[in-house]
Write a structure and sequence with these properties.
The complex is a heterodimer of chains A (250) and B (254). With 250 residues, chain A is α/β, with parallel strands linked by helices. Helices cover 40% and strands 24% of the residues of chain A. In chain A, 40% of the residues are buried. Chain B is mainly alpha-helical and 254 residues long. Chain B has one domain (2-253). In chain B, helix 5 packs antiparallel against helix 6 (179-187). Classes of the chains: A alpha/beta (250), B mainly alpha (254). The A-B interface holds A 45, 48-50, 73-78, 80, 82, 84-86, 88-92, 101-102, 104-106, 160 and B 31-32, 35, 116, 119-120, 123-125, 127-128, 130-134. The complex binds adenosine-5'-triphosphate and magnesium ion (MG).
Chain lengths: 250, 254
């Protein structure tokens, strides 16, 4: 379980996160939703320690991440997998080497075992026959999936996905959502997903934190999100003609 | 208008501080030695083989020019003709090869290092390493620094050889002085210390080149636009430091 307590983040004089309090539960898909620029990525980077919040704490099973000593932090990080908004695959390595990289660094597996694991992970994200290609040779959606494969290679306890399906077609987007949902439950991972994709919100959101201009505006789950009486949340959810029409029929 | 403002001086000292903090991160123990050696060999290979051709061509040309110019300066009949070889050798071994070739390598290897590390920063690959629990500075930069400490001195030795060869061939082709006198001069009063001096200089310059280039790539903030700026800055700053250190090292070692 990851708890966020009173986290505020500033860039210079500009405050982008205001006193965020929320919880991400173990073995579930936890969503962070909000409009572009609301602070989702910044919050996620505070969770994984790429940004240090000026105020507040991030607790991993009650242990304060930002005040651990270095070795402890590194041990915890070895249990994290992260999919960046821009995939962040290593472009000097092939897809296979990318996925194998955490295995090389953190395990003592034999070559054979590593290849087996890589093939398993790539197959799990529906990417066969791309082992020898470089990231530049893949499409955006394939890169996202390869990044997911790399993130799950070491059986992480915590999986962070920053907009895993932005810019993908609805069908591929669904495939990725289902994949994230399935691996979360298959391996009991604590998964945190940033998204503004409504389909993800209503299909995989077991907990949902809605961020509005840096404030945590609403917290709930996929059943509550469509019927809340929070004005800002409704403005976000029912912004498009399609969802407005759905609302009328609700 | 003031040319140097207080803010600039402050910026200067902050950058120096950041540089040394960066160096401390670079020189932390590699996360995994086997990976470190693999990367080291890879870097040595790309740096060494990649620069061999340009270094040898430039050296031959440099040797040829310096020999011709030396020969033209020495016309008086009471200066022995072997001086041409002697003076050429001394300038080539002690100054031209270590300094000029190091500057050439700054433009060639240094800018590549900045671009490579900078683009990894811009596309969040460095963040990805960090989240995985890897020390990115040590993982990415240490092999490059060590590789350049090994490769650059070797390249300089090659370069000295090619420069002398260039001078020799020029003498044969033009007949400015007799080949035997030139060879006499080349070997006259040869001191191993000169080579040591050249290698030590190169070693220091190599460290400056690789660490400053990595530093400028590593600290990029922002997008691809910053990348070009960082590479230029890296080249200018490391060339500047190299030329300043050249003066100091010369004063200390000679
Ligand atoms: N490194 C940074 N320096 C300064 N400001 C930043 C930095 N990163 C983000 N911000 C600011 O923080 C705010 C939140 O940005 P963030 O990237 O978290 O948005 P987001 O919710 O992830 O949006 P999107 O859905 O478009 O990815 C923005 O106003 C942005 O300008
Ligand atoms: Mg974002």
């Amino acid at each position: 379980m990851i708890e966020v307590k009173q986290v505020s983040k500033f860039f210079g004089d500009r405050q982008v996160l205001f006193d965020i309090n929320t919880t991400f539960e173990e073995g579930k898909v936890n969503l962070i939703i909000g409009r572009s620029g609301s602070g989702k990525t910044v919050l996620m980077k505070c969770l994984v320690g790429l940004f240090a919040p000026e105020e507040g704490v991030v607790l991993y099973n009650e242990r304060d991440f930002h005040h651990m000593n270095e070795p402890e932090q590194h041990k915890l990080r070895a249990e994290m997998g992260m999919v960046f908004q821009g995939s962040a695959l290593f472009d000097s390595m092939t897809i296979e080497e990318n996925v194998m990289f955490p295995l090389d660094m953190f395990t003592n597996m034999s070559n054979e075992e590593k290849h087996e694991r890589v093939d398993f992970c790539l197959h799990r994200v529906d990417l066969d026959d791309v082992n020898r290609l470089y990231p530049a040779e893949l499409s955006g959606g394939m890169k996202k999936r390869a990044a997911i494969a790399r993130a799950i290679a070491c059986n992480p306890k915590y999986l962070f996905c920053d907009e895993p399906n932005s810019g993908l077609d609805p069908k591929t987007s669904l495939v990725i959502d289902n994949l994230i949902y399935d691996i979360t439950h298959e391996f009991g991972i604590t998964t945190i997903v940033n998204t503004h994709d409504l389909n993800s919100v209503i299909t995989i959101g077991e907990t949902i934190s809605f961020i509005y201009e840096g404030h945590l505006e609403w917290f709930g789950d996929k059943d509550g999100v469509l019927v809340s009486d929070n004005q800002k949340l409704n403005d976000f959810i029912y912004a498009q003609p399609l969802t407005q029409r759905i609302r009328k029929s609700l | 208008m003031r040319i140097i403002s207080l803010a600039m001086i402050e910026r200067f000292f902050i950058t120096i501080g950041e540089y040394f903090i960066f160096l401390r991160k670079v020189f932390s123990k590699p996360d995994k030695w086997s990976i470190f050696f693999k990367k080291l060999v890879f870097e040595m290979d790309t740096m060494g083989i990649g620069s061999m051709l340009i270094v040898s061509i430039v050296s031959i040309a440099m040797g040829s020019v310096i020999t011709t110019q030396t020969a033209m300066q020495i016309e008086s009949s009471w200066i022995p003709t072997w001086t041409v070889g002697f003076v050429s050798r001394t300038s080539i071994v002690m100054e031209l090869c270590p300094t000029i070739i190091s500057l050439l390598l700054v433009g060639n290897l240094g800018s590549r290092i900045t671009a490579e590390i900078g683009s990894m920063r811009v596309t969040e690959q460095i963040d990805a390493l960090e989240v995985m629990g890897i020390h990115p500075a040590s993982y990415l930069v240490l092999p490059k620094v060590i590789a350049s400490l090994i490769v650059n001195p070797v390249l300089i030795i090659f370069s000295i050889f090619f420069a002398l060869l260039g001078g020799y061939v020029t003498v044969i082709l033009t007949g400015m002085v007799s080949m035997y006198d030139f060879l006499d001069g080349l070997t006259y009063c040869f001191r191993v210390y000169d080579i040591v001096y050249a290698v030590v200089k190169t070693f220091i310059f190599a460290f400056v080149m690789s660490s400053v280039a990595s530093f400028y790539g590593y600290k990029i903030e922002g997008g691809a636009l910053e990348l070009g700026k960082a590479s230029t800055q890296g080249i200018v700053v490391s060339s500047f430091i190299i030329l300043i250190l050249n003066v100091l090292v010369t004063q200390i070692m000679l």
